[in-house]
Amino acid sequence: MGLALGLGAIWKSIIAVLLVGFRSPGAEEALQSLVPQRFSHGQSRDCLYNRTLALYVVEYAAAVYVDDPAALMSWTCSRCQGLTSGFQITELIVDVPHCLQAYVGVAEDLKAIVIAFRGTQETSYQNWAEDLYFRQLDLNYPGIEDAMVHSGFYSAYHNTTLRDSVVRGVLSILARRNDLGIIVTGHSMGGAMATLCALDLAANFGMIDMKVITFGQPRIGNSVFAAGYYALVPNTVRMTHAHDIVPHLPPYYTLLGEKTYHHFATEVWIFKIQVGRLQYEFEQVCDSSGEDPECSRSVTGNSISDHLQYLGVYLKTVDE
Ligand SMILES: *[C@@H]1O[C@H](CO)[C@@H](O)[C@H](O)[C@H]1NC(C)=O
Ligand SMILES: *[C@@H]1O[C@H](CO)[C@@H](O)[C@H](O)[C@H]1NC(C)=O
Questions:
Q1: Is residue 23 part of a domain?
Q2: Quick one: a GO biological-process term for this protein (predicted)?
Q3: Domain for residue 32, yes or no?
Q4: I need a surface site. Which of 90, 158, 207, 319 has the fewest CB within 10 A?
């Protein structure tokens, strides 16, 4: 039960992670009693969210923030170790005029081509978030009738050097390898580009074996776009963290119907529960609507610091 991804199917699971402190007898039970009933174990299991994979992928999403092309090309940067070590980058795209960066390469341990997009380089996240608030749905997404997106998001991927370089990079790997899947990732604005890229690869290049994991991405289109995206790229995990402001933007207006921005499935919401001096993080796999009212939408989006950290990894440009 619960694995039917059909309309309205609600399937949730929850994974508890002990963040601080140590395991003591009875701690598990004590914690259980604090977790609201709807979060409790024993509900239908979900196969989509693979936490181990997410821990790898968040490292790739962090590495694309590295500013030193040589350290990226040789995969020797400070963030090019640990879970991502051994990655072979084949294409590094630096679009200086638009302040964009992405890479393509092969992760043998994941048996995958990894494509990662960098988030915004705005000096003030606060200003950037305020600007996101007012973005209009002003472009018909080509190929999906009635699907609308914001032209700025669309252009960042389709109307810069990114699209051609990424597609060329992927095709040239696939020309010599047929044993690799594709993983697409990005944080923040990079998450928006990652999803537009995955949709492009699915719709225009027929790529099927694709996983998408984004971190703290904004909404990018209306509900028709969200449904169209989900139909073509179902293996998508859209991670949100506690009060991260960006997934709340541009705003979702229930009463606007087709005219409002609408997230696609499947959100995985990381939320925190404070127990005395200990803080626990839980991950909740949300429903197939894309706008689960019990996930990030159940809290206010007012935090930049929650935006900059996912699964213990800091996602921002740092000096090497
Ligand atoms: C989750 O991902 C890891 C890393 O790619 C993989 O080794 C593992 O088999 C996956 N688990 C499932 C249940 O697919
Ligand atoms: C793409 O870029 C061109 C040239 O900068 C511009 O004229 C066009 O309006 C852009 N398209 C979109 C969808 O933004």
A1: no
A2: lipid metabolic process
A3: no
A4: 319
